[in-house]
Amino acid sequence: MKLNRRNILALLGSSPALLAGSAYAKDKEKKKIGAASESFSQIKIEGLNPRGIPPAIQLVPMAPRLKTLDGKTIYLVSDGFPGADHFLNQIAIWFHKNMPSVKTVYRLKAGAFADDDPKLWAELKAKANGVIMAIGH
Amino acid sequence: MGIPTAPMVTIAFKDLAKTNAAKRGMPDERICFTPHPVWGKTDAQMYAYLEGDDPVTGKPLMKEVIGALTDPLTPDEKKSGTVTPSTGPATFVDTQDNLQKYYMNNGMTDFMSIVIPTKEKVDAMLKGTSHDPEEVIGELTPARGSFPAWKFTVRQVAINAVMAGAEPEYLPIILAIASSGLPSLSSSTNSFAVAAVINGPIRDKLNMNYGIGAMGPFNDVNASIGRAWTMLSKNLGNCGLPGETYMGTQGNVVSFNNLVFPENEKDSPWTPFHVQKGFKAEENVVSVFFGYGIAQGQGGKGSAVKPVPQFDQGLLYNFTPLTSIFGALAVLDPLVAKDLVELGYDTKDKLYDWLQKNATLTVGDAKTMLFTGGFSLRGPQAANLKDTDLIPRWPRKEMINAVVVGGQTNPYYQVGNLSYARSVSIDKWM
After folding, report:
1. Cα–Cα dist A101/B1, whole Å
2. H or E element: which one contains A6?
3. Model confidence pLDDT, tens digit, residues B354-379
4. Residue B115 and residue A47 in contact, taking contact as beta carbons nearer than 8 Å
5. Interface of B with A in 147-186 (CB under 8 A)
């Protein structure tokens, strides 16, 4: 006779129905695990802030404004991105049409977009009353 | 400078321009916005922008520009002093699930589940280095010169390494990458990619994968180090905030965990990459690259030639779509490298030399390219060039590099439009 758990129980005079108990036990165990994970999910933990150290910001007061643009020299400065030269030329045309007393001067900043250009800044300081700077795209 | 200035920026860069002005000390800078884009528009279309409204304020654009130069300053605009920005509390306390959401919703992750960096896990991670946890080890910025750089400590790198799933033994490589100053996420509208090639005995010590599938998701060391690079770029360099510090118009799938792989020194017929850069073979080194990304190269010209495929011709063929603004990185399976040796390239240097001399483009083509390799189109010599003249795609052979990786299942290769940036010692961080 092939022995399995039901046959063994029958030989021992016990009802094979006892096996049903194991299913109950499994279910009970499952509920226990569920409750444990539920309570685990409520446990609070402490995570560290992964951010670095931003630099302090030095506030820079803006330069005093002009009372009027009449008769003033406005430098039109491009950072070198394609199209900025054409765009600034249109601004020059706009001033010529709408505010002809404004003199415009076009300059291309040297180097890549973010590079410094001390020579140009010195020229602006010496000759410009105001600046319109076209940045990027 | 002390001269009234009206910066003009297109509307697509509103957040970037305003936050960057604030970080540079002018939170109220009078930025005037145009519609986007300016580049590629006709003169008439550009003039129409000037006659129209500033898309941010809704007021006439040129009136805004004139006002920016002439309206009296407000008290806020005259302010000076120092402001110390905050990055939030030192710790966050909540349940696992809520912390996952918190880190993700606050831009500190790559939008996949992380390992929560508890003090215990970070302390364990710090055992991977002899360095003082509070040592400030580097700076990162989304674009050097455009954004103020953030600094960071060994501990802060370790926190990010935990989040990425790395083990303490990987920390020296992650510290080396962080200290290189190259972030994995750049602010550019281009969607750049980065690569890190690891050389030296640490590759075997950590069981890194330089064989089959080395560049894919098949090894926790390669994967978690690459992932940590993106995580630390976001958190330690303030990179990767779309619209503010990340403007890559399409993004780059490589940025999830980047091109991080060790060179297959064992099967390469050539000098290891780090030795080419002046290190000793027994040193552990990471070399970092940046550029547009990488593409499969197999199937190109020369691959079917027998008995030895002409992989030099194949590389040249696959260099054609590359722009000259970045260099070329040939990533070769050892079988390809061995065939190149048979073709006479017994050193990488000979290959670089031949490729630089033969990778050319016409002046006419270069003139039509946005980022031309127009290196030869600049300077006085440019005036004498005809459109049909050939110019080198890269002016120097140093812009071409090759590394060997792969499991020799077939003689295949990939070609990256990637520039070599620098090599950094890993041993220094042990």
Report:
1. 24
2. helix A5-11
3. 999 999 988 888 888 766 555 556 66
4. no
5. 148-153, 156, 159-160, 163
